[in-house]
Amino acid sequence: SGSIPEFFQLMKRQFTEEEWRVIKSMKNEWLQLDMFHRHWALKESFIKAIGVGIGFDLQRIEFNVSPVELEVGKTYNETIIFLDGEEEKEWTFEETRLDDFHYIAVALGKSGEFGKNHSGVIPTNKTAFTILTFNDLVTSAIPLAPEDPACWESFCSRQEMPARQSCNPR
Questions:
Q1: H or E segment at 83?
Q2: Long-range contacts of the stretch 122-127 (C-beta < 8 A, 24+)
Q3: In which family does this protein belong, per the annotation (predicted)?
Q4: Which of the residues in the chain have pLDDT under 70?
């Protein structure tokens, strides 16, 4: 396993100089990695919202994160995005810190409920994120097809890792 600086070097092209300045301004490597993950969540939320693939040049977008520290369980929307150096005022990003290791960022376009007229912490009476268990998700699920025991047996008999193809020259 590599070091955090080595990882940052690999990811260098995914962030702007200003984003790296903010990431590296954190007190220690673990806080830097934490800020890296926050920026990554923001970039990913925007890419998913506009529906483009991972081929998008992530240096075209720059986030000015605010506030620097997010309190666990609160939802914020002060972070600003710049696209090709210009602020994209119609975009709002709701950010939540779930715990010490996980950020959530949701990109909202012009129709977002919390637009540019609202800033700061989103009111606490607004439902934030709810953590669902697997059972919560499948309780009301309906099978698409009848259960096929042979399919399950076939799945269970598969190797965990795909076998390497051996090269047998003739």
A1: strand 80-83
A2: 122/74, 122/75, 122/76, 122/77, 122/94, 124/74, 126/75
A3: Belongs to the P-Pant transferase superfamily. AcpS family.
A4: 1, 110-128, 161-170
What pLDDT does 159 receive? Answer: 75
Q: Helix (H) and strand (E) counts for the chain?
A: 5, 6
| Torsion angles phi and psi, residue 62, rounded to 5 | -135, 135
CA angle 94, 98, 103 (to 5 degrees): 55
Q: Which residues contact 92 (CB under 8 A, 6 or more apart)?
A: 77, 107, 108, 112, 114, 115, 116
Q: What is the DSSP letter of 160?
A: S
**In 3D, which of 123, 37, 111 has the Cα closest to residue 77?**
123
Between CA 39 and CA 23 the distance in angstroms is 8
Give the helix ranges, DSSP H, for 88-148: 134-138
Position 155 scores a pLDDT of: 87
